[in-house]
Amino acid sequence: MVEDASPQGSECPVARTLESIGDRWSLMIIRDAFDGIRRFSEFQKSLGVAKNILASRLKTLVEVGVFDIRPASDGSAYKEYVLTEKGREIFPVVVSIRQWGERFLFKPQETRSVLLDNASGQPLMPLEVRSSNGQKLEPSDCHRMRLVNGVKDA
Amino acid sequence: MVEDASPQGSECPVARTLESIGDRWSLMIIRDAFDGIRRFSEFQKSLGVAKNILASRLKTLVEVGVFDIRPASDGSAYKEYVLTEKGREIFPVVVSIRQWGERFLFKPQETRSVLLDNASGQPLMPLEVRSSNGQKLEPSDCHRMRLVNGVKDA
DNA sequence: GAATCAGGTTTCAAATTGCAACCAGTCTTT
DNA sequence: AAAGACTGGTTGCAATTTGAAACCTGATTC
């Protein structure tokens, strides 16, 4: 009896990630959450997305473990959607997307929103891919490998 | 006469990025390109995507400037899709997505594909968001600001 | 207690996706 | 040089997903 190799999702972490949070609205919702948005109506107002779509996305994001539902912090009977640890760790993804967009999709003087460090008020350092010993890596400096049971596959 | 504030796309770099490369297939195509895939049929085989969808995505990725079309390097009359500088700079986005997936979407012993540094054969360093002076930043250490003509907006 | 707001669900039309068939140039094989 | 296969698509159609709007229930405010 052989165990099913992939009960859910692909073997590629990129593919599997995109399956759970990889649509436009989910990432925009998460971006808003990083700005402190927690309530359904606030997400809806900020994004302008249809309510049924927002409800559906929030539901799957909760199922996937990116958001928790909690009673609202203002004591009302309503709920709040707050990022879990798993959700907060999406921060580098959103920041790298933001930095790419700032660099390649805006003209220098064009109006944009930027992310600043609270302490210094300065823009963030550009994210760079580095090897385990700190060397900066280009795409061509890396290769993919299949890892089966923690061991390299032929 | 007032200039139109946003002729195309949102003011948020995250939103604008997701508009151009933010669907599942586009990012998967780019991921494959980082693995050296260049030909239409190779993308199609690797991704299992419908040919009309692939054609449509490649077309917009070329229009957006992420890919260039070049004559095939093997001397045949066919074409190749190769990443531009702009396209190669999506690397941190793909790597951050990959690292999040590896960490949160796989059980420890589960078969997966990993990205290794050619030089050392080791996994990459986890991407971290840092301030301009190198301090590691959490989402709550940052704030968004609107930048109009290079100047902070009220 | 009436009106309003939060957080949805339902309905239906429109857009997108995916599959399969087809097609025009290339390239290889004989 | 003709036959067959491969490359890089396009076209048509069915199925799924998306989006706008109306509606609804419980909580809150007036």
Automatic annotation (TrEMBL), chains A, B:
<dbReference type="InterPro" id="IPR002577">
    <property type="entry name" value="HTH_HxlR"/>
</dbReference>
<dbReference type="InterPro" id="IPR036388">
    <property type="entry name" value="WH-like_DNA-bd_sf"/>
</dbReference>
<keyword id="KW-0238">DNA-binding</keyword>
<dbReference type="InterPro" id="IPR036390">
    <property type="entry name" value="WH_DNA-bd_sf"/>
</dbReference>
<dbReference type="Pfam" id="PF01638">
    <property type="entry name" value="HxlR"/>
</dbReference>
<protein>
    <submittedName>
        <fullName>Transcriptional regulator</fullName>
    </submittedName>
</protein>
<dbReference type="GO" id="GO:0003677">
    <property type="term" value="F:DNA binding"/>
</dbReference>
<keyword id="KW-0804">Transcription</keyword>
<keyword id="KW-0805">Transcription regulation</keyword>
<feature type="domain" description="HTH hxlR-type">
    <location>
        <begin position="12"/>
        <end position="109"/>
    </location>
</feature>
